[in-house]
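Thread: quick sanity check before group meeting

JM: Hey all, I'm pulling together slides for Thursday and realized we never actually wrote out the predicted structure for the chain we discussed last week. Dropping the sequence here so it's in one place. If anyone has concerns about the input, flag it before I start.
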Amino acid sequence: MDYLLTAIFGKKALGQLSSSDYVDWAGEMLMQNYDSHSLRILAGLDRFAGAIEAEDYFLRSLKELELNQPDSETAIRAYACEIAQRMIEGKITGRDGVRALYKICIETEYAREFVIWYELDDALDSLLHGDYPFTYESATLGSFDDIAKREATNFIATVCPQTAT
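JM (edit): ok, ran it. Output follows.
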């Protein structure tokens, strides 16, 4: 599944979408040659339109494009795997990836497979404030991105084996 779909489904399952997110998604989808009546309307909505209206056009767009929305658990896991993969590929920094996965950890009520991201985020906060990173003692600011990539690789191997490289 392409990143735009994985991200929108994951963010929707996590309750992290605003009307501007839906509008931005629709514009990106049109630029990637997806097209439907509702998708065009959604892309043209005011970014500050009501979230209910934007979500309505989003759901219509999915139906018109014959795209199936996965269940919440599948959507969240796929989104997390995509974030980890993007860290490994250098498309996002380790810091940004850890922050995004930390938020998923919180939203999933500290699901076991996401706890490492909570620990790394705590270590990052400690390092940024000049404190010792008790939750991940080997971390330094200089090694943080490498550690994040290593943990992302482990995460993909254990949580998302279908996408392991």
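AS: nice. Helices lie at 3-14, 19-31, 37-44, 51-64, 72-88, 94-107, 115-128, 144-159. The radius of gyration is 17 Å.
JM: adding both to the slides.
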